[in-house]
TrEMBL record:
<dbReference type="InterPro" id="IPR034006">
    <property type="entry name" value="M3B_PepF_2"/>
</dbReference>
<protein>
    <submittedName>
        <fullName>Oligoendopeptidase F, plasmid</fullName>
    </submittedName>
</protein>
<keyword id="KW-0482">Metalloprotease</keyword>
<dbReference type="GO" id="GO:0004181">
    <property type="term" value="F:metallocarboxypeptidase activity"/>
</dbReference>
<keyword id="KW-0862">Zinc</keyword>
<dbReference type="InterPro" id="IPR001567">
    <property type="entry name" value="Pept_M3A_M3B_dom"/>
</dbReference>
<dbReference type="GO" id="GO:0046872">
    <property type="term" value="F:metal ion binding"/>
</dbReference>
<feature type="domain" description="Peptidase M3A/M3B catalytic">
    <location>
        <begin position="204"/>
        <end position="581"/>
    </location>
</feature>
<keyword id="KW-0378">Hydrolase</keyword>
<dbReference type="InterPro" id="IPR042088">
    <property type="entry name" value="OligoPept_F_C"/>
</dbReference>
<dbReference type="InterPro" id="IPR013647">
    <property type="entry name" value="OligopepF_N_dom"/>
</dbReference>
<keyword id="KW-0645">Protease</keyword>
<dbReference type="InterPro" id="IPR001333">
    <property type="entry name" value="Peptidase_M32_Taq"/>
</dbReference>
<dbReference type="Pfam" id="PF01432">
    <property type="entry name" value="Peptidase_M3"/>
</dbReference>
<dbReference type="Pfam" id="PF08439">
    <property type="entry name" value="Peptidase_M3_N"/>
</dbReference>
<dbReference type="GO" id="GO:0006508">
    <property type="term" value="P:proteolysis"/>
</dbReference>
<feature type="domain" description="Oligopeptidase F N-terminal">
    <location>
        <begin position="116"/>
        <end position="182"/>
    </location>
</feature>
Amino acid sequence: MQQTNNLRWDLDIIFPGGSHSADFSTYLQELESELTDLADIVSQYNPDKESVDTKRLRILVNNLEKVNKKFREASAFISCLSAQNVKDEQASLLVSKRSELKAKFEAIQTSFNQKLVQIPEDTWQNARNQDDLNDLEFVLNEFREQAKGLLPIEQEALINDLAVDGYHAWDQMYQAIVGKMEVRLKEEETTKSYSIGQASNKLANPNRDFRKHVFNQLNRAWKTNEHLFSQTLNHLAGFRLQKYTHRNWDDVLREPLELNRMKKKTLDAMWTAINNNKHHFVTYLNKKAERLDLKKLSIYDINAPINREVKTFSYQEGADFIIKHFHRFSPKMAAFARMAFDNRWIEAEDRPDKRPGGFCTSFPESGQTRIFMTYSGTSSNIATLAHELGHAYHQHVMNDVNGLNQRYAMNVAETASTFAEMIVADASVTYAQSTDEKKGLLEDKIQRSIAFFMNIHARFLFEKRFYEERKQGMVSVNRLNKLMVDAQKEAYCDVLEEYDENFWASKLHFHMTGVPFYNFPYTFGYLFSLGIYAIAQKSDDFEDEYIKLLRDTGRMEVEDLAYKHLQVDLTATAFWEDAIQLCINDVYEYLSI
């Protein structure tokens, strides 16, 4: 592999000139024109009650796919621009423009879906199995079923239009505030200012006094703005709940479950299995407290390294390690990762003004992806990089799939990423050069399990309870704090001394408008990928079978996907219990050494 010294991504190859790109401006104008044309085509489509012209319908969905890809391409570019520099005002304007275009596209999609509902059931059953539509049978049927739960087209269109400034704007307001926040930290003899993302990375410091200082300073920053964040969260939730009320949807989980194409029985089975096995991880947390000479851990101690000396790796070393161990399971995935590094598809530089966190976004027209993170050289950073490369590979193997069949849900999206992360985490443990290093790497793995089983569970519990209370009116800052601490106490089995009452403010996912309940799909993906990983270790032809599973993720319910490719029942606890056992094994291997 060529030397990977450039930690900045290359966006110019897609649209040169950044947020002021003339090419991108032209592209947006073309997208707007194509949206107008598509709206006309959909409005003129009136399906016959007796029969369906499948060839004509195929032409319509081909246009829908084309515009969908173009919108995703533009959206991805804007996401990259706004993340790489939160102070880029032009990028902020483009985020607003994207919301407008999204509202138009969603209105067209809703109109199309409701046209499908007009087709009588027997006529529809006959039409969707015709050769012209056979490959889109699942997604078209899904469009039709979803439309049955919506309001009349005029009202849904109005909701989409009002959402630009009445819903998505709250997400943008939150990100604008966070982008301007600074955290001042005392380090040795100096005091420095850091962005939220940079300061958060320092919570992994082995020095507890410094770690507590970072936690307190971050909390001070969040508390300074907590009343603003309570407004963004309350109004975002209020808009969503009003929409549910008008649609006669009482269950706040209806939308997230539909979006993730999963049954409530599957979600319940997963959390039941996790709750049945949390005591193993409580044992680990108590042991860690003992090793740190503490009666109880606080929330900022959970991810702290036990070893005072934390090994770091250059970006080149991290890239080489990932490619080497991807190759053991899938030479194709390794070749893809090498190409992503060589072509600068990754933004990893540790610098101010970047958005916190990490993500992967796809450019379906260009056939490319981009990965965003902040790399500071830890084992955890390498795992995160592998995680995002897993996302990118998922899209890569679907590039030749019809765009409407690429709409895979968040829970299965997290499967590919977590599988890639697991390959690297396991390899790190296996090839550790000392007992201390092995302990540290096992800890990284266990901490990920605790994040998925406890931290994510706390987010889920908080969000569910918050939404139920929000139905009765605005929820105060003090009440938000209490709901958050109560959820953390329950999720962590009350094993901690100090919790993070401001987590509702600091966690971006609570304020995002794209997907409600941006939490449980992570845990689903983690455990589902464990099942895939177990099969991969025993299979001789894993690579091709894995690609087949990934290519099906956009055109199946998750229960059907699991049964077809893994022969397992996700609505029963047995699958989840077996997957969790692999994580329990890590705990006891760690305790044994």
